[in-house]
């Protein structure tokens, strides 16, 4: 399972998907579908463990009708515990919010209501009332960076006492892109089909067709001083239609990481002070000895020049990136 982000302190009952516990009402905020799924599944599984049988009802907020909540929460014929899942609550009719606010004053016994708000913007006052009433509020914020996605892969594997090489995690994220559910499913497949540490070769064996060249492939090769590989990756990126601006941005990010890592290693600043993720530090640290101050300064200037050229100062943006790649590799080799 993926690592949950730290719970926000917005409400007394704020929590994360991997810590939430059943309650009369469980509010699931945020737009990250994978975390919504896992929060719901965790609540459902815990309710099931507490009773020999339960009755599960699912309500779509888009079709909710006034009084429906009261009907569903009423005692069943066999007095079984009930679990009511309300989906798309953020786009529901006002009648749902009115019914929930009335229900807050007298929740039914042996009934758990899990409210998945989703991307809709309605019901904010109702969600505040629920949160301030100290019911669990699960925050499922979107995961926006590749670094965060790699951290999720690592955390999922760590829960199963497995590990993955940094390059393999990066390759897996490149293969699945922003599809976090797909990334989690791919991680599960690798868990069930392999043993030991998951390497980049293993990931490529499973997802070769989906691993595309990106700006960071070019940047990784440049930082490692692999000029031939960097130029081949650059041509693949060009054939894939990747904007030269994106490639230069990846180079800038890598050299910024090297500069920050040097400060950390010199003990002038801590990684936390610089906002430098430990994962990124571990990934970049082996390259530091190849980048002295002269080489790093030269590479940063080359990237700055390429940035200006790809944004309009040059007639051939991709040629400008190629010159930058060659210059950076030469600085690393000490020939400039």
TrEMBL record:
Give me the reactions it catalyses: DNA(n) + a 2'-deoxyribonucleoside 5'-triphosphate = DNA(n+1) + diphosphate
The GO molecular function terms of this record are: DNA binding; DNA-directed DNA polymerase activity
Which InterPro entries does the record cross-reference, listed alphabetically?
Answer: DNA_pol3_clamp-load_cplx_C (IPR008921), DNA_pol3_delta-like_C (IPR048466), DNA_pol3_delta_N (IPR010372), DNA_polIII_delta (IPR005790), P-loop_NTPase (IPR027417)
Question: What keywords appear on the UniProt entry?
Answer: DNA replication, DNA-directed DNA polymerase, Nucleotidyltransferase, Transferase
Q: Which GO terms describe its cellular component?
A: DNA polymerase III complex
Q: Where is the DNA polymerase III delta subunit-like C-terminal domain?
A: 214-326
Provide the DNA polymerase III delta N-terminal domain boundaries.
Answer: 27-118
Keyword check for Zinc, yes or no: no
EC? 2.7.7.7
Q: A single GO BP annotation from the record? A: DNA-templated DNA replication
Q: Supply the NCBIfam families for this chain.
A: holA
Return the similarity comment: Belongs to the DNA polymerase HolA subunit family.
Name-wise, this protein is DNA polymerase III subunit delta
Q: Which species does this protein come from? A: Boudabousia marimammalium
């Amino acid at each position: 399972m993926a690592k949950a982000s730290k719970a926000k302190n917005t409400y007394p009952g704020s929590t994360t998907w991997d810590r939430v516990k059943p309650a009369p009402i469980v509010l699931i905020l945020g737009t990250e579908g994978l975390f919504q799924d896992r929060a719901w599944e965790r609540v459902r599984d815990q309710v099931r463990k507490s009773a020999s049988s339960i009755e599960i009802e699912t309500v779509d907020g888009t079709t909710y009708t006034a009084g429906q909540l009261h009907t569903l929460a009423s005692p069943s014929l066999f007095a079984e515990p009930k679990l009511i899942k309300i989906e798309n609550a953020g786009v529901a009719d006002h009648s749902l919010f009115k019914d929930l606010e009335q229900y807050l004053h007298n929740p039914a016994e042996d009934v758990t209501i899990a409210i998945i708000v989703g991307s809709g913007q309605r019901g904010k006052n109702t969600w505040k009332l629920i949160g301030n009433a100290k019911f669990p509020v699960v925050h499922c914020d979107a995961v926006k960076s590749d670094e965060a996605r790699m951290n999720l892969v690592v955390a999922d594997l760590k829960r199963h006492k497995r590990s993955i090489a940094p390059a393999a995690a990066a390759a897996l994220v490149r293969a699945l892109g922003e599809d976090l559910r797909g990334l989690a499913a791919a991680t599960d497949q690798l868990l069930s089909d392999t043993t030991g540490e998951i390497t980049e070769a293993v990931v490529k064996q499973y997802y070769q067709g989906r691993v595309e060249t990106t700006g960071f492939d070019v940047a990784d090769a440049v930082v490692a001083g692999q000029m031939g590989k960097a130029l081949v990756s650059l041509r693949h990126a060009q054939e894939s239609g990747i904007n030269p601006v994106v490639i230069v941005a990846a180079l800038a990010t890598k050299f910024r990481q090297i500069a920050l890592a040097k400060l950390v290693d010199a003990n002038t600043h801590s990684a936390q002070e610089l906002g430098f993720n430990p994962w990124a530090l571990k990934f970049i640290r082996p390259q530091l000895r190849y980048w002295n101050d002269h080489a790093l300064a030269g590479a940063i200037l080359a990237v700055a020049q390429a940035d200006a050229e790809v944004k309009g100062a040059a007639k051939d943006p991709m040629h400008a990136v190629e010159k930058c790649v060659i210059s950076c590799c030469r600085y690393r080799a000490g020939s400039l």
